[in-house]
Structure formats: structure tokens, C-alpha cells
Amino acid sequence: MTLNPKAVALTLGLTSMLSLVTIAQAQKPGQAETFVVDDASIDWFQKSDVSALREGVMDRMELRLGKEVGKKGDVIGYLHKEVADLAVKEAEIQARGVGAIQKAEAQKRLAMAVVKRNLRLLAKGDQYVSSEDREKAEAELEAAEAALIEAKDTQDLARAKLDSAKQAASEHIIRAPFAGQILEEYKHEGESVRANEPVVKLGNLDTVRVWAFIPVEYYYRVAPGCEVAVQVKLGSSRGKQPIELKQFRGAISSVDQSIQSVGETTVRVYADLDNPNHDLKPGLKATMTIMLKPEGAAASVATPSPVRSASVPLPSSSGNRSVELPPLPR
Hints:
By secondary structure, this protein is α+β, with helices and mostly antiparallel strands. It is built from four helices and 14 strands. The strands form two sheets. Strands 1-8-12-10-9-13 form a six-stranded antiparallel β-barrel.
């Protein structure tokens, strides 16, 4: 069969155009470049050994191992504080006391009355009041004024001691520095506690920190605010677990200013992710995909606060390679 040369030429032209379109779509010139770190680590963002501020003996625990702390300032436990409460009552009595002030005021009124009487008499003539009596009355008035100032200062000091006694009593109460969960118990009822000695370990899983080392050549292409995607790695021999098919979105929060040598010349980067369902656990390994800044970009990206994360299904991936991340919801 004889082929029409024009038809052949047209077919070849259309084929070439379709190939060019396919290549252009595959390359996606505007697509942002990413870098994948296979050995990122998930760590605590907030974790603390909560200590007693005073030396004493544990009275009782309000929150035990595994219990949730709702908010900062919630009571974790108490030291015996009977002596501290008595000190507060004693200080309250002293702070309320006004007897010394009233006595000084009465003495001042008496001394002032004597001085005024002497002035009236002196107006009639110097012979009515001797200079010794006049000087004595004036000195007694000055002494009464000084006694009143002293009495008021004493009351101010008593009020300050009351505040100090109340603070000492409050330091027998062990409070949470932030919301979270009791991870460990170090002390129990009846045990002695030294000042600043840990009583419990408290951790907050609402936010986690993911960190990893990246090659130094990417140092100037990663900055606070760069978007990241984190995928948990369990390393199970039974295949991928459901949690490993989720993707948690966030952003770089910090980049080390110093270069380190860990296998190769590297720099450590950190991403803080919201973890409302507590799916991300400290100690797990993860893959972190970082959306790189364009090469040569001079402006740094602003640090987001707070960072919001979301989990969506993600096919498994391995090795360092570029992938396209869907845009984060704004």
C-alpha cells in the first residue's frame, strides 16, 4: 500500500509536538526543588523534671504517672506545710496590728497640744513659759513624730514578712510549668525532698520537634519557614503500618549556625510540628522532605508561629530525591 507523503509528514509532526508537550509536563519548570532526609529524629518539644522549690517531706500527690496536666499551674503535689501555714497566720496578725501606730499618733497629738499652749502663752509674754519648757515640748513633739514613722515602718515590714510567709507556703505546692502528661514519678508520699530535687517528669506531646542533619551544600537553601513533610519510619518486617502512610506538614523552625562533622560536613535543622492526636512519638525515626529555597535566593523566609501540621496519606518513599509537595492550607 502506498502512503501519502503529506499524511506521513503530518503524522510525524503531530507525534513530535505531543512528545514535546509530554516532556514539558514532566519537567514542570516552575516546580520547587525538595530534599529528602531519611534519618530524621522525632524529639520532645517540651519536657521537664518538675522540682520542689523547698526542702520538705511529700504530703500527697494530686497527679500520678500517666495523668494529664490540663494547664500551666495545675497542682501536681504537696509538701507538708503546717509550719509554713502557722508562719503565715503569725505574719497576718503582725501586719494587721495598729496599736503601735495609734499610740504614736496619741503621743503626737499630746505633744502638739503642749506646743500650741506654749505658743499661746508666749503671745502674752515671755515670762509665762520658760525657754526650757518650750524646748522640751518641741523635742517631745519631734519624738512623737519619729515614733509614728517608726510604727508605720514596722507595719510595712510586717506586711512584707506576710508576703514572704505566703510565698514560702506556696512553694510547698508543686505546680506544673506547662500542660502535658506525667511521664515518671521520682518521689512518693512520706519521702523527703531536697530543694530543687525533681519530683516528677512532665512532657507535652501537643507539639514535637523533628531534627535532622543535611549536607552543608544545602545550608543556604534551608531557612526558618521552609515547608517540610514528615513521614514516620517504624522499620517493621511486616511492611508499612498505617501511621507510616501519613504525612505530617509543618515548617523549619531553626537552623544551626555552626557546621558539624557527622559522617560528612553537615548542619542540623529543626522543625516544630503540631501533634494534636499525639501520633508522633519522641524517639521514632522519620523521613523529612524539605522544600528548598531557590538557589541564590537572598531573602530568608519568615519564621511561622505557631506551626500547624496536618496528616494525609502518602505513598512510601526512600532515598534522597525530589518530590512535589502539595501547597499547605493557608
